[in-house]
């Protein structure tokens, strides 16, 4: 149940992004659900590998390179999912940050501290 609610929270965060940034568009709720699912899978499978491979750069940049990795993965998902569009890298950079903040805020409001809805 918690996984389903987290997926819906992330889809809602994606649906909110076009209202905050004109360079991001989500055509419909179905596209947001698919994009949230693909983004979750990419962050689970590909992101840890990229973080390990870029560890020296991340260390030298004091961890700020993680933001670049997040932006690249967000941009990648926008290219993979029909109905979810991001204008460019810098739009993806800012959108990834906003997406994280929105999904964190919604998760904090809707999920209890023990992780149950």
Automatic annotation (TrEMBL):
Pfam families registered for this protein in UniProt: Phage_holin_4_2
Protein name: Phage holin family protein
UniProt KW keywords: Membrane, Transmembrane, Transmembrane helix
Tree of life domain: Bacteria
InterPro entries cross-referenced by the UniProt entry: Phage_holin_4_2
Transmembrane segments: 28-46, 53-77, 89-111
């Amino acid at each position: 149940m918690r996984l389903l609610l987290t997926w819906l929270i992330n889809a809602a965060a994606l649906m909110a992004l076009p209202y905050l940034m004109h360079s991001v568009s989500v055509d419909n709720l179905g596209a947001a659900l698919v994009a949230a699912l693909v983004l979750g899978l990419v962050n689970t499978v590909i992101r840890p590998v990229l973080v390990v491979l870029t560890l020296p750069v991340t260390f030298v940049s004091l961890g700020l390179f993680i933001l670049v990795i997040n932006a690249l993965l967000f941009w990648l998902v926008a290219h993979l999912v029909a109905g979810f569009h991001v204008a460019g890298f810098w739009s993806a950079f800012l959108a990834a940050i906003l997406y994280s903040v929105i999904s964190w805020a919604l998760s904090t409001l809707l999920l209890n501290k023990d992780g149950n809805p």
